[in-house]
Amino acid sequence: MSRLTRADLERLDAGDPLAPFRDRFALPEGVVYLDGNSLGAMPKGVPERVHAMLTREWGEHLIGGWLKDGWMAKPLELGDRLAPLVGAGPGEVAVVDTTSINLFKLLSAALAMRPGRRVILSNAENFPTDLYMAQGLIAQLGGRHALRVVPEDEVARAIDDDTAVVMLTETNFKTGAVFDMADVTAAAHAAGALTLWDLAHSAGAFPVDLNGCRADFAVGCSYKYLNAGPGGPAWLFVAARHQEVAHQPLTGWLGHASPFDFALEYRPAEGIRRQVCSSPGVLGLVALEAALDVTLDADMTAVRRKSVALGDLFIALVEQECGDAGARLISPREAGLSPPWRRGSQVSFAHPDGYAIVQALIARGVVGDFRDPDVMRFGFAPLYQRYTDVWDAVAAMRAVLDSGEHRAERYRVRASVT
Ligand SMILES: *Cc1c(COP(=O)(O)O)cnc(C)c1O
Q: What is the pLDDT of residues 163-184, one digit of tens each?
């Protein structure tokens, strides 16, 4: 490739069909935000919507809001709105609880659907909370089950007739590598096992096709590529064909068939509603509602196309500008413009001084993040990033490396949140 210049990227910005979306986000002046994979930027409609919920709904309608403002219906209503982003149908998604809790609920339901089988199969590179929740569930169930963890490229081969559930995060949080969901799901089904997909780094980042892949269960969060704000409500998916046999253990009153009968015996609701446990957190739900207004206006194919272009450019520019500095690409070089996807919407480089370089970049207004032991992670959110942001980020990296400012003592001390 010939040498890229900033003018090349200015031309790409000028011709970018997604460029108008940037205006719908609040972004501080002078910041290049490449951490939307960890906490998405705030859509401008969110404060307005939350404010309206507080003043016009809660403030004026008080308890009447549960019906008048549709608060009680939000978990399933927003589930239906979110469903097309992950290839689910109506009545298959609920927006409830947190990703970890939903994983626990559905993993438990899935194990109960495969009573003769002992193994939860996962991969060693999985996000730790998924493995921890599985360990907690196994202990709770009396230790009859086992968590088997294999390297990600051995998962499909490791599925056997003792595998109850294949539990995977589709997009590797460190490298951005993506499992072939259709392929792994087919291998699981061929062996009689179920699949549970964690889509934390997939939903909103690229097109996901749960039903097209015949996935059984899935969970995901809303505060990464869906921009619902810190700790925003998570979601879960149960394929329609499993809904009457999938029994989750957190049998709270709002998953009851008739909660306001206040009966003494739990009786599960029909459909996806039995996956609900508690009173919905309406403040978080309306923030997600306003955030979804933005994402649902975008064509996910265009989002994917731009995400791949941003990631490819970032790789090319880091190699062009910082090629001599010892940064090693650990993300797949090929992203994929159609399934199977190879790389999600992030690019990671390993560098022995990774933590300090990321801190020095943040001080210069280029926000990425760091993952142990040496991973510098940069997320691409096509709705609010410009091609020139990629240029500016790499220019800042070059400046940090040239000046050696990352060697300063203040960039070496690990913060409690990285
Ligand atoms: C971010 C993330 C989570 C977050 O779980 P919480 O319960 O919301 O804290 C879970 N799984 C994966 C794979 C993640 O990337």
A: 999 999 999 999 999 999 999 9
Taking only Cα atoms into account, the Rg of the chain, rounded to an integer number of angstroms, comes to 22
What positions carry a catalytic annotation?
127, 198, 223-224, 377
**Domains in the chain, ordered, with CATH?**
6-30+299-411 (3.90.1150.10), 48-295 (3.40.640.10)
- DSSP state at residue 16: -
Residues of the chain falling short of pLDDT 50: none
Q: How far is the CA of 38 from the centre of ligand 1 (A)?
A: 9
Beta carbons within 8 Å of 52's beta carbon, 6+ residues apart: 286
Minimal-distance CA residue to ligand 1 atom 14: 200
Residue 238: C-alpha distances to residues 77, 177, 403 (Å)? 15, 24, 52
Cα-to-centroid distance, 335 and ligand 1 (Å): 23
- What's at 246, amino acid-wise? A
H-run or E-run covering 132 = helix 128-140
Q: Phi, psi (5° rounding) for residue 272?
A: -70, -20
Please give the model's pTM, rounded to 2 decimal places.
Answer: 0.97
Whose CA is closest to atom 2 on ligand 1? 200
